[in-house]
Design brief:
Number of helices of chain B: 16
Shape of chain A: globular
Strand order of the largest sheet of chain A: 2-1-5-3-4
Strand order of the largest sheet of chain B: 3-2-1-4-5-6-7-8
Number of helices of chain A: 2
Helix content of chain B: 25-40%
Radius of gyration of chain B: 23 Å
Distance between the termini of chain A: 42 Å
Strand content of chain B: 15-25%
Oligomer: heterodimer
Order of helices and strands of chain A: EEHHEEE
Order of helices and strands of chain B: HHHEHEHEHEHEEHHHEEHHEHEHEEHEH
Structural class of chain B: alpha/beta
Shape of chain B: elongated
Largest interface: A-B, 27 and 53 residues
Number of strands of chain A: 5
C-alpha cells in the first residue's frame, strides 16, 4: 500500500527535487523508515543520532499532528496523505 | 475615541460594512500593533495596518535598506537604499496615513528589552528571520499574554498562525525545539519569491485587524501552509501542548532566557569570521584561499551551492556539487587532497565540511564568508546576490 508523503521545500534537494513521493508502509514509522531508506540524505534531517524523530520536524497524517495520535505507531489508511512540516524562520 | 470627519472619509469602505462599522473603526484607532522587523513580512503588514487605521504601529528594526531588499520589501523604495529601514518605513507609512502614530525602535530585540517593548502593544506581529528571535517573541508574548500574529517564509512556501492567545497554542507547542544552526537555510541563502511575503504578511495583518476588532474566526489552533508554486493553501490542526515549557500547565520557562544559546547559535562567531583572526583549523579566509590559488597549490575547491547560483558567479577552479548531492557524489571528491568547501556565505559549506569529516576526510576547511566575502575582498567582478 503506497501513501503520498508531501516533501517541504527545504528537504526537496534530498528527494531528487520531488515535492511528493509514494512510499509503502502500514504505520507512520514504517513509511518514514522506508522513505529514508529510499532517500538516505533525508535521514539526518528527520532523525537524531539516537534514531528519534527530530522535534523541529512535525509529521501530519492528513491535518492531524501525529504527536497527538499514536506518534510513529499511528496507522495509515489508503488515501491518507502524510506531510512533513519543518520549522522555517525566514521573514525578511 | 470618536472619529474625525477626515477619518470618516478615509475609512468609509470600512464604516459601511456592518462587521466593522464605526465601532470597529474606533477599536482599530485605539488599537496598537508592534511589527518585529520592517522586512519582507513587516513591509506589507505595516502598510495594510496603517491603511486600515490601526492607531499606533510600532516597528523594531536596526537594519539599513539594501538593493537586495527591494524585490520584496515594498515599504522601501530605490531612493531609500542606504537609509535606516525605520526612517524609510516611517516616512512611507505616514505618507499613506498621517492620522496614525508610528513608533520606531532602532534596536535588536533581546531578552533584556523585549518585555518592555511589547508591553504598550495589543498585538505583536512576528516578521523576523531567525530562530532565536522567533522563540524570544513567542515566549515574551506568552509571558505578557499578548497574541502573536506569526508568519514565516522560505522560497515558495509560507506559514502563518496566531499564537499565544488565551487558551490557544504557542509557537513552542508547534515546535518545542529549534533546528540546529545551519540545518535550515535562511532566505539569504535559500532565496524567496518576492511576492510570497506579500501574501503571508497580509495574512498576518488580516489576523491582527480581526483580533483588534474581535470579529471573525482567528487563525488560532490552525497552521496555514501556503505553496505559491502550486497555489495551494493547506490547513493543519494545532493543539495546545499541556507539557509546553512556556504555556503548558506547569511551565518551566517563566522568564526570558538566552535564545542564542537555546538555538545553539554562538553570537561571537560572525565577528571572528569578519576579522579573520583566531580562526580554527577548520576555517579558511578568502585571503588565504587567494594565496593558495596564486601559489598554484594542489587542492580541491568544492562549491556546494545550487547550479543557478553557480551561473551567477564562481571562484576559479571550483567544482560544483550541490550540498544535497554531496552524499551520492563522494567519489568525485578526492581523499588525498586538501579540500576547501565554499557556498554563498559559509553556512551550507560548514555543513558539507562537517559531513565530509564524518566520512573520513581529514583535510577539510570551510571558506569563511563564502563567495560574498570573495567578491568583497578579492574579486569585485564576481557579482553579489
Amino acid at each position: 500500500m503506497a501513501n503520498k508523503i508531501l516533501i517541504p521545500t527545504p528537504l526537496r534537494p534530498f528527494t531528487g527535487k520531488q515535492d511528493a513521493v509514494e512510499v509503502d508502509g502500514a504505520t507512520i514509522g514504517e513509511l518514514l523508515s522506508n522513505l529514508t531508506t529510499k532517500y538516505e540524505g533525508l535521514k539526518p534531517h528527520l532523525y537524531n543520532e539516537q534514531g528519534k524523530l527530530r522535534s523541529f520536524v512535525n509529521v501530519y497524517l492528513n491535518d492531524e499532528d501525529i504527536r497527538y495520535l499514536e506518534k510513529e505507531k499511528t496507522a495509515v489508511k489508503p488515501g491518507d496523505t502524510i506531510s512533513i512540516i519543518p520549522s522555517v524562520a525566514g521573514g525578511r | 475615541m470618536a472619529l474625525s470627519n477626515d477619518e470618516v472619509k478615509r475609512y468609509s469602505r470600512h464604516l459601511i460594512m456592518p462587521e466593522v462599522g464605526v465601532e470597529g473603526q474606533e477599536k482599530l484607532k485605539k488599537g496598537s500593533v508592534l511589527c518585529i522587523g520592517a522586512g519582507g513580512l513587516g513591509s506589507p503588514a505595516a502598510l495594510y495596518l496603517a491603511a486600515a487605521g490601526v492607531g499606533t504601529i510600532g516597528i523594531v528594526d536596526f537594519d539599513v535598506v539594501d538593493f537586495s531588499n527591494l524585490q520584496r520589501q515594498v515599504i522601501h523604495g530605490t531612493p531609500d537604499v542606504g537609509r535606516s529601514k525605520l526612517a524609510s518605513a516611517k516616512d512611507r507609512l505616514l505618507a499613506l496615513n498621517p492620522l496614525i502614530n508610528i513608533e520606531t525602535y532602532e534596536t535588536a530585540l533581546s531578552s533584556k528589552n523585549a518585555l518592555e517593548l511589547f508591553k504598550p502593544y495589543d498585538i505583536i506581529l512576528d516578521g523576523t528571520d531567525n530562530f532565536p528571535t522567533r522563540y524570544l517573541v513567542n515566549d515574551a508574548c506568552v509571558i505578557l499574554g499578548k497574541p502573536n500574529t506569526y508568519g514565516s517564509i522560505f522560497r515558495f512556501e509560507g506559514q502563518a498562525s496566531v499564537f499565544a492567545t488565551k487558551g490557544g497554542p504557542c509557537y513552542r507547542c508547534l515546535y518545542p525545539e529549534p533546528p540546529p544552526p545551519g540545518l535550515v537555510p535562511s532566505c539569504a541563502e535559500g532565496g524567496v519569491l518576492g511576492v510570497l511575503p506579500g501574501v503571508i504578511g497580509t495574512i498576518q495583518a488580516t489576523e491582527a485587524v480581526k483580533l483588534i476588532m474581535g470579529i471573525g474566526e482567528p487563525l488560532i489552533g490552525r497552521f496555514l501552509i501556503y505553496d505559491a508554486l502550486r497555489m495551494k493553501f493547506r490547513e493543519l490542526k494545532l493543539k495546545k501542548d499541556p507539557d509546553c515549557p512556556v504555556c503548558g500547565t506547569n511551565p518551566t520557562v517563566r522568564e526570558l532566557i538566552d535564545y542564542e544559546q537555546f538555538c545553539g547559535v554562538a553570537p561571537s562567531a560572525p565577528e571572528v569570521a569578519v576579522t579573520g583572526a583566531n580562526h580554527s583549523e577548520t576555517e579558511m579566509t578568502v585571503t588565504e584561499l587567494k594565496k593558495k590559488i596564486d601559489a598554484k597549490d594542489d587542492f580541491f575547491l568544492l562549491d556546494v551551492r545550487e547550479p543557478n547560483e553557480y551561473q551567477i558567479g564562481k571562484i576559479p577552479g571550483s567544482t560544483l556539487i550541490p550540498l544535497g548531492e554531496v552524499p551520492q557524489r563522494l567519489s568525485e571528491i578526492p581523499r588525498d587532497k586538501d579540500i576547501i568547501v565554499h557556498c554563498k556565505m559559509g553556512g551550507r559549506s560548514a555543513k558539507a565540511a562537517s559531513f565530509l569529516r564524518q566520512q573520513g576526510y581529514t583535510k577539510v576547511k570551510n571558506l569563511t564568508g563564502g563567495i560574498l566575502d570573495w567578491s568583497d575582498k578579492i574579486d569585485p567582478s564576481v557579482p553579489k546576490y
